Amino acid sequence: MQLNLLLCLVLLSPLVATLHRHRSRETKKRGKELPPVVTTVAPHTGDFAFDLYRALAAAAPNQNIFFSPLSISMTLAMISLGARSNTKAQILQGLGLNLQGGPEEELHSAFQQLLQELSRPKEGLQLSLGNALFINPTVHIQDTFLNAMRTLYLADTIPTNFGDPVGAQKQINDYVAKETKGKIADLVKDLDSTEIMVMVNYIFFKAKWETSFDHKSTQEQDFHVTSEMVVRVPMMRHEEQYYYLLDRNLSCRVVGIPYQGNATALFILPSEGRMGQVENGLNKKILRKWLKMFIKRQLELYLPKFSIEGSYQLEKVLPKLGISDVFTSHANLSGISNHSNIQVSEMVHKAVVEVDESGTKAAAATGAIFTFRSARMSPLRIVFNKPFLMLIVENMENILFLGKVTHP
């Protein structure tokens, strides 16, 4: 009988605390650093996010892009717990780590602390975060793997009868739908009796803008998808002090819009014809520079209401980042099960984001299927009426969501 191991990760979250509201009084001069945030940072995964973005963008030019780097990197980190040899090395190196010293332990410990930190109640935010393992009780999973999942990733274990694929699928999907307030439905599809485990990570987040856009100010305006294609979109408008900077090297402007509960979203508007330059130049050093250089400036801001989604087969994309063995007959995942010939045959990521006058909702899901080898100035007018990037970070470091709005 063929055994399959299905691992799914669900993330529902536009962001968590990025730039504190009290910083507005402390960052009016360019170059003054933002005060440190006392939360945990998952180490070294910043460039992974941008490298993955570039790979996704190259595979789908001129298309909307939206995904959760945190969701995918956490999925890979959990897989690495059961990976061995070169399979483990590729995953950790793809995340910016190596096998020498203690970086792997640091990675898992940081994710553990991040799970604990993000699960604490925060005023003004709806946030829940957790992991679960749906396990076939008739198949042996390594105790060390299960213990690490429970300890480091705070995972609950739920016995599941995969001999009844329809029932198992409903059990898992109902669980995910409940934890994500219905935003992720039917995540798991086409289960059969060979599955041995499904891993789910969920985050639910909902926040309102610190200062809402007035519905009465929203009007239909042109959005220039390309130089030849123009569509009409509902364009929100508000004049307010926002975080702002002009990056002349990358030829773009960046606007930070705060939410209630100490959270901020970044919107990046490239200069005409410079989208590729911005995409190619983005990295974690640039992001850190932006967050240090932000000033408060009075802006007359025009931002379209939009809802976009992305769906990606990551087993076709991650090999471009050097993570390939885990998807082939060379995979060594003996740390997950004593069956030595397990590999990841499929890894799916889905994400959706909605932005309107009141705030933002976002959702994402990643699934990996394991099988046997078979400043005070005059108001500046900024109009997001052409393709732009959306970047959502936590703790000035953890990139929760990253996307490009080409067609709202």
UniProtKB/TrEMBL annotation:
Q: Which InterPro entries match?
A: Serpin_CS (IPR023795), Serpin_dom (IPR023796), Serpin_fam (IPR000215), Serpin_sf (IPR036186), Serpin_sf_1 (IPR042178), Serpin_sf_2 (IPR042185)
**Nucleotidyltransferase keyword on record:** no
PROSITE patterns in the record: SERPIN
Record's keyword annotation contains Zinc: no
Look up the record and report any one GO term of the cellular component aspect: extracellular space
GO terms (molecular function) for this protein are: serine-type endopeptidase inhibitor activity
Record's keyword terms, sorted = Signal
The Serpin domain, residue ranges: 50-408
Q: Please state the span of the N-terminal signal peptide per the UniProt entry.
A: 1-18
Q: Which domain of life is it from?
A: Eukaryota
Database matches in SMART domains: SERPIN
Family listed: Belongs to the serpin family.
Protein's UniProt name:
Serpin domain-containing protein
- Its source organism is Diceros bicornis minor (South-central black rhinoceros)
Print the organism lineage. Answer: Eukaryota, Metazoa, Chordata, Craniata, Vertebrata
